Amino acid sequence: MPSKATTVAAIAVGCSLLAYGASRLSKSKSSSSKRPKTDLDDLDDVDDDDKDCIAPDDVVAVFDKLFMTMQQVVMQLSQQVQQIQMSGQVIPEKQLRQLLKAEFERALIACQEQVFEDNDVDADCLEEATWEFMEKPEEYPKVKRAVERFQKLYESISGEDVVGWTPRGGGGSDDGGASSAVVRKDLSPVELMTAAAVYFDAITKSMIELADAWRAAGRDLKDPKVVTQFQLEASTDANEAGEGKLESEMGITMGDFRSAIDKHSRIPSVGQTLGMLQMKQQQELIAAGVPM
User: Fold this and answer.
1) Are 160 and 25 in contact (CB under 8 A)?
2) Angle at 166 between CA 8 and CA 46, to 5 degrees
3) Looking at the record, which segments are called Disordered (predicted)?
């Protein structure tokens, strides 16, 4: 039987620490006439006079809420995969990715309308405004942070490179055509386990440092509202810390890391190592009083 930390490891790396690490503000190329304009996908034919109807804070509020909602979905999916593995059932990694992606997007469609309604925004107007703000990241850093946090959550499920993609500027990876395929650095199982230790250590330290800083500033980490904001900030800071360490110490990207996990996660020693790292991380975070 595979270790329960194997197949789910690719998810856990992106979403451990309360799903620290979504839908990509999708870069689908299919025609807008074939989809309802309610799923953050289409920018076509939006009237110019709608451009200013959404403020940057509105975009941030929507994506923060979607992130908090969908990270719970990711955690539930992770638990379901663990249960499947513990039963002895084996699902090929590619098929598993497809299933997880489909479940994520189904849940996103189910929740986003309520989020739009709660924040009193129109889907088309939100989309247009979001892309415009994303084209000016220095002017709207909070929007960039909120959107890319959400995109990273989607990456953790789909395995696709979508962070930083915009309709005009590209970025991420394109689903269509071999010419746009991203070449990954091939890691051995031993290199993967070393990278995992580097990554988890970096994000654990980042989380503890942030929690200590918030306490020093007088913020109550037992207050649910404060905890929500802490989780949002920590999800970005911790992932950036982990990715930065992978790049600086091992010369690899997060995409390389995920690809290696997909490739080697069924090797018992790899799965056991990832499981132990996750357990160690949780113990350290709890001991440090980091809200979980």
Assistant:
1) no
2) 120
3) 24-48
Which residue has better confidence, 16 or 171?
171
Q: Which residues contact 61 (CB under 8 A, 6 or more apart)?
A: 119
What are the two backbone dihedrals, phi and then psi, of residue 166, each rounded to the nearest 5 degrees?
-135, 155
CB atoms within 10 A of CB 95: 9
Q: How many CA atoms lie within 13 A of 98 on its CB side?
A: 5
Q: Give the C-alpha distances (Å, rounded to integers) separating 268 from 75, 115, 261, 285.
A: 23, 41, 12, 26
User: Which range is most confident: 16-30, 77-91, 134-148, 266-280?
Assistant: 134-148
Rounded to whole angstroms, the Cα distance separating 131 from 17 reads 29
Q: Is the pLDDT of residue 103 over 70?
A: yes
Residue 286 neighbours by CB distance under 10 Å = 11
Q: What is the pLDDT of residues 214-248, one digit of tens each?
A: 999 999 999 999 998 898 888 889 988 999 999 99
Backbone angles phi, psi at 200, to 5 degrees: -65, -35
CA atoms of 51 and 130, how far apart (whole Å)? 10
> Which residue in 21, 243, 10 sits closest to 148, CA to CA?
21
Question: Considering the entire predicted model, what is its pTM?
Answer: 0.66
User: Do the Cβ atoms of 187 and 194 come closer than 8 Å?
Assistant: no
